[in-house]
Amino acid sequence: MRKVLIILAIITPLVTFCQGSYENGIAWVSLEKAKLLAKEHNQKILIFFYKDNCQYCEKMKKETLSDNNVINIINRNFFPVQINSRTKDTIYYNNKAYSNQQPVKDGYTWRHDFYAEVASFQKNTKLTTPTITLFNSNFKKITVFPGNQPKELLLRRLKKYID
User: Fold this and answer.
1) Domain containing 33: what range?
2) How many structural domains comprise the chain?
3) Domain presence at residue 108
4) Is residue 134 domain-resident?
5) CATH number, domain at 153?
6) How far apart are CA 86 and CA 84, in angstroms?
7) Residues near 50 by beta carbon (within 8 Å), at least 6 away in sequence
8) Residue 22, pLDDT score
9) Using one digit for the tens of pLDDT, what is the confidence trace for 3-30?
10) Over 90: is that where the pLDDT of 1 sits?
11) What is the pTM of this model?
C-alpha cells in the first residue's frame, strides 16, 4: 500500500502538469504536425500569417492573440500554426510544392507562394499581413480573415467555424 501511495504522489503532479494549460498562450504547432493531428482528430487548422517588423502583426499578437477567450477558443477547436509570410521553407498544399522564389542572398522581403495562394480573400487582390486562414481536417482552405482582427471580431468569426 505504501508503494502505491508513493507512486501516486509522483504520478499525480506529472499527469496534472502534462495536460497543459492554455491560459498562458496559444499552443502553436508546426504545419506538418497540425496536418497529421487534424486528420487524426477530424479538427480544423488555423494558420496565422505574419511578417517581421509588421506593426499590425505585433498589435494583433499583443491585443488579440493574447486574450484568454481567443486563446481558449483557438486551442480547443483548432490546431494553430504560425507562418512567417516570408519564410523560405517549402510547403506542400494540394499535392504541389510552394516556396519563396526570391534567392536567399536577396534576403527575406518577398512573400511565400503558399501565403499568396491561400491568404488572398478575393481573386486578384493584394495580400494583407497579418492574415488568418482556416483549413478543414483534410487541409482544404475554408476561409480567410485578412488584416488585424480585434478580439471581439475574431471571436465572432471563429465561432462560426466551430463544430
Assistant:
1) 26-159
2) 1
3) yes
4) yes
5) 3.40.30.10
6) 5
7) 57, 60, 61, 82, 83, 84, 85, 129, 130
8) 44
9) 544 444 454 444 434 444 445 799 999 9
10) no
11) 0.82
